[in-house]
Specification:
With 383 residues, this protein is α/β, with parallel strands linked by helices. The protein is 45% helix and 13% strand. The chain has 13 helices and ten strands. It has an eight-stranded parallel beta barrel, surrounded by four helices. A hairpin with a 6-residue loop joins strand 9 and strand 10. Helix 7 packs parallel to helix 8. It is elongated, with a radius of gyration of 26 Å. It starts with 10 loop residues before the first strand and ends with a helix.
Length: 383
């Protein structure tokens, strides 16, 4: 696609599985993306994977871009990954490998209508080569990386004079050294508080006005970096900035802090797709708190647990209610607690009930029912 003046319409997702997944899985997972009205994906390529079997690599890559485009999703391929940067790749000896790889990939995709733009490198500064260097040595290494980026951008441009070029920088502060080599500048933003995030966008807007180039946030949202989806995406919208979530699927190394969908299409947290679709939680004056006992259901749930936990204690006639009866009373309380958001949802009580039901563990069933009844009593201030 020819460079656009404005990329604020991009609602993208990073997809590290990319062209490695099967066609069936790809269509299924692109369907998940479509349900959230996502319209672009960002995928990681590897020169070393390409070198193992160039023909197979290019065939899979082309099939991916075409399949995504059939689903209404454009593609931003990442040629090199700065996170796994090998210092030797910056030396003259690697030049021939890089040149052959860039030539074959660009020639394979440059005519594809689903190609949004080229990302020459993901996070050039996020690697040990840069991070562990200090002072003047760090400046020298960073300039060496930038020289590689400039050469690579130039190679892409000579092969493809139509499609846009970008570099997916780790921080907004990294952008300016190579802004002259790109059509669109992009940065990642996982900052933890609104003030810091806002500063990145203000800097991007100032640079954009100064150099006359549009910009994107090509990675954002991370649970363990205090960068929640609703906050990060709200600020993107306020600044009319296109974005790419990291990432679509809950899978692999980052699965405990990134991703929206499990392979079966369920989600970790429904508030995440809600945020993607533009729904925001109220946090100012006027909040109305749920009343779990408005119709006496909290009291009823507590009574159900009490009855389910009662025991017959006569000699030779001792007995307990079945595990199914105990868990049904527990589920009644759990549903109230979850519906009224009175419990943390990282491990919902209903998920614990499902595990106990499957295991048939009577002791754990009784213990959980007791805990949930007490918690419901506490949260609803019942005596």
């Amino acid at each position: 696609m020819k460079p656009l003046e404005d990329y604020s319409s991009i609602r993208g997702f990073c997809y590290s599985g990319g062209c490695r997944v099967s066609g069936e899985q790809l269509k299924r997972e692109l369907g998940y993306a479509g349900s959230l009205r996502l319209n672009s994906t960002r995928i990681w390529l590897s020169e070393r994977d390409y070198r193992k079997d160039p023909a197979a690599f290019l065939s899979k890559l082309t099939a991916f871009v075409e399949t995504a485009w059939e689903a209404g999703i454009s593609t931003m391929p990442i040629l090199f990954n700065g996170n796994g940067l090998h210092p030797g790749d910056l030396e003259q000896g690697y030049e021939e490998y890089a040149e052959n790889y860039i030539k074959d990939v660009v020639q394979a995709l440059r005519g594809e209508p689903g190609l949004l733009m080229w990302d020459v490198m993901n996070e050039p500064s996020c690697n040990d080569y840069i991070i562990e260097a200090k002072g003047e040595e760090r400046k020298a290494r960073w300039e060496k990386v930038n020289e590689f980026l400039r050469r690579s951008c130039d190679k892409v441009r000579k092969l493809d004079s139509v499609n846009a070029v970008t570099i997916g920088h780790t921080y907004m502060g990294d952008v300016e050294d190579t802004v002259g080599e790109v059509d669109v500048f992009s940065f990642h933003d996982y900052l933890p508080v609104r003030r810091q995030i806002e500063e990145s966008y203000l800097a991007a807007e100032e640079l954009s006005a100064r150099v006359g180039k549009p910009f994107l946030n090509s990675e954002l949202c991370c649970l363990c970096r205090a960068n929640p989806y609703d906050l990060a995406l709200d600020i993107c919208r306020e600044h009319h900035t296109g974005w790419y979530l990291f990432e679509l699927m809950i899978d692999g190394y980052w699965s405990d802090v990134h991703g929206i969908f499990y392979p079966d299409g369920t989600v970790r947290d429904p508030s995440i797709p809600a945020a993607v679709l533009g729904f925001r939680r109220k946090r100012d004056e006027g909040m109305v708190y749920p009343n779990a006992n408005k119709e006496g259901y909290a009291q009823r749930g507590i009574s159900m647990v009490k009855e389910a936990l009662e025991e017959k204690t006569k000699v030779f006639r001792a007995g307990r209610k079945s595990i199914d009866e105990v868990l049904e009373a527990a589920e009644f309380c759990a549903n109230l607690l979850e519906a009224c958001e009175l419990v943390p949802m990282y491990d919902p009580p209903t998920a614990r009930i499902a595990r106990i039901r499957k295991a048939g563990d009577e002791r754990e069933a009784r213990k959980l029912a007791y805990e949930l009844a007490l918690l419901l009593q506490e949260k609803c201030l019942l005596l």
